Amino acid sequence: MAKAKAEALELIKQLPDDVTTGRIMEELFFKQQIEKGLEDVAQGRIITHQEMKDRIARWRKSAGR
User: Fold this and answer.
1) pLDDT tens, 19-53?
2) Can you give the residue range of the structural domain that contains 51?
3) Domain tally for the chain?
4) Is 44 helix (H, G, I), strand (E, B) or coil?
5) 38: left (phi over 0), alpha (psi -120 to 50) or beta
6) Cα(52)–Cα(13) distance, rounded to whole angstroms?
């Protein structure tokens, strides 16, 4: 947990002095999502580009587009 706190503080230090709380939260959430994606890749939880295109096509079709 200490590592996560240190990384969060470092991220916050890099933001401008007039940053809003909302913007800090957005940056922390973005960082979290990137880390989750990298962990997914490391664990082999990935799909091909073609698989994603197929999913998008199905979603669009089911939405009537």
Assistant:
1) 999 999 999 999 999 999 999 999 999 999 999 99
2) 2-62
3) 1
4) coil
5) alpha
6) 37
